[in-house]
Specification:
This protein is of the alpha/beta class and 306 residues long. It contains twelve helices and six strands. Strands 3-2-4-1-5-6 form a six-stranded parallel sheet, with helices on both faces. Helix 2 packs across helix 3 and helix 4 crosses helix 5. The longest helix has 23 residues. The protein starts with a strand and ends with a helix.
Length: 306
């Protein structure tokens, strides 16, 4: 086994589990390296709000595709896919194990499945973006729902960027299903999926505490330092959960209590969507987040025998 995807909702301990798994592989003579599949961890300087492991906490395990974008740049799964696959190919060529780790479901799926992204059309994109500004994401999402309910169900009704892209792809191809992953995807290369799960009540408790810790650890100060680097010009970064609320607090548009409460609510909603997304991985090995260390060592031993 040369590629293992470690997925799950935010707050289920994917990063720590990946390190435990890498160390377990080391004990059976295999070198494992982490490939980031969290869209927001691609950004330099976005550390506290993304729960990015600092270098000193990575236990000497190589990590790839962290801190590769400036906050003013746009993150896209179409650009991420070839970069991630190139890194994985390099790891495999070194006889290593690639651990694809993250909760951005589309990013993970774009790597492990043979999915080709349709092109773009600047004129169509500009027209749809103008409509987004004029009408708002709700009406565009309703339009998408009328054309392709399945795609609409997988896209956050407030995520204008994703809605515009889905409508653009449908208009370009004339095929509604072209804006979503195939129902029965073909694997890009042999892989295994580990899905970390947690009881909903325990997860909510951890997520709420994590948001409070982000503010105690200085998220607002982190955001303030990112503003001169172009955070507010960024199409993707400025809308990240926690960062948008910290920006609002920084500019006096929201109190700290309200910023924390809104971030907690949005994080819980996001985690619920992640759980729904990863249910589609029917053949995944499901592991309880509270029992991850022991199961990781077992998984490494099994993989060494494959």
């Amino acid at each position: 086994m040369t590629l293992i995807a470690i997925v799950g909702a935010t707050g289920t301990g994917k990063s720590d589990f990946a390190l435990d798994l890498a160390e377990a592989f080391g004990r059976v003579g295999r070198v494992a390296e982490v490939v980031n599949a969290d869209a927001m961890q691609l950004y330099r300087g976005m550390d506290i709000g993304t729960a990015k492991l600092p270098p000193k906490a990575r236990r000497g395990v190589p990590h790839h595709l962290l801190d590769v974008l400036d906050v003013a740049q746009e993150a896209s799964v179409a650009a991420y896919q070839p970069d991630a696959r190139a890194v994985i190919d390099e790891i495999v060529a070194r006889d290593g194990v690639a651990l694809l780790v993250g909760g951005s479901g589309l990013y993970v799926s774009s790597v492990i499945h043979d999915f080709r992204f349709p092109g773009t059309d600047a004129a169509i994109r500009a027209r749809l973006e103008a409509e987004l500004v004029e009408l708002g994401p709700g009406l565009l999402h309703a339009r998408l729902r009328g054309i392709d309910p399945e795609t609409a169900a997988s896209v956050d009704a407030q995520n204008g960027r994703r809605i515009v892209r889905a409508l653009e792809v449908i208009e370009l191809t004339g095929e509604p299903k072209a804006a979503r992953l195939p129902d029965e995807p073909v694997a890009w290369r042999e892989h295994r999926i580990v899905h970390l799960r947690s009881d909903r009540a325990r997860l909510v408790e951890r997520l709420d505490a994590r948001v409070e810790r982000m503010w105690r650890d200085g998220l607002v100060g982190e955001v303030e330092a990112l503003v001169p680097q172009g955070l507010e010009r960024g199409v993707t970064a400025r809308k990240a959960i926690g960062y948008a609320q910290a920006l609002a607090e920084l500019h006096g548009r929201m109190s700290r209590d309200d910023a924390v409460a809104e971030t907690q609510q949005l994080t819980r909603t996001y985690a619920r969507r992640q759980v729904g997304w990863f249910r589609r991985y029917a053949h995944a090995t499901t592991i309880d987040a509270d029992d991850a260390v022991e199961r990781g060592a077992e998984l490494a031993r099994q993989a060494a025998l494959d």
